[in-house]
Amino acid sequence: MGPDSSRREVAERQGSAGIEPGSALRVIIADDDALARRVLRDALQAGGVIVIADAADGREAVDLAVHYKPDVVLMDVAMPRMDGLEATRMIAARVPSTKVVMLTATDDLEVGLVALRAGAVGFLPKTARPESLPQALRAARDGEAVFSRRMTMALVDVVRRVRDDGAGLRPVRSPLTGREWEVLDLLCEGRSTDAIAGSLFLSEETVRSHIKNILRKLDVRSRQEAIERARAMRSELMAPGPRATD
User: What is the DSSP letter of 82?
Assistant: First the structure.
């Protein structure tokens, strides 16, 4: 059975269940584990979700998202060829209308923060009940953030611990990509090229390329000038807004 006939079968089941076809949630699943994809597909379809495609790696997930433009991509973090974080960055850039929810084996705060910076709107552990996923993905499509309670509290704690100088904050509108901000954040911490490469799991050559792009986009000539520019941008974010007048 081809993908078109499979999708028609799903649509017919939803119509018999009284679900409006036009309001049906369209999802792509990305996970390198075939059994996990099958379990997720069954759970989503049982909840009235149309699974229009699934991918076994990040590269395939990007290609499918660009082609089908789904409402949501349910994305695993660790996958071959291209991991879920890089795939999320590419989808956020190429298909901004598509929301990405990360599904990972670990409820790790650092991975969750990187996922958010990559463009994800949700971060859920694989221990989440499969039957709860349709509601969570509909919330993501409708503009809500989707996190476990533990991750939500961890994010609240991160906000509470933001330094007075705004270290770690990033402007909403910026010429830098999410990855370039990650590199610049580490430069601001005084990290060397090899330390940044180790922290972000990149080659030193890739880090140097990112730094070159950062200098060009910020119109500065040195790493120190880039750090000073980042601090100035954060100072603007931390500055109090205009007071309300009667």
Answer: S
Nearby residues of 83 by Cβ (< 8 Å), 6 or more positions away: 58, 77
Give residue 11's pLDDT: 43
C-alpha count within 13 angstroms, C-beta hemisphere, residue 108? 9
Nearest to 71 by CA among 99, 96, 43: 99
Query: CA-CA distances (angstroms) from residue 117 to 57, 111, 175?
Result: 20, 10, 14
State what percent of residues in the chain have pLDDT above 90: 48
- The pLDDT tens digits of the residues spanning 24-40 come to 899 999 999 999 999 99
pLDDT at 9: 44
- What structural domains and CATH numbers belong to the chain? 3-157 (3.40.50.2300), 178-238 (1.10.10.10)
Q: How many whole angstroms separate alpha carbon 158 and alpha carbon 145?
A: 16
Pure H helices in 47-145: 58-68, 84-94, 109-118, 133-141
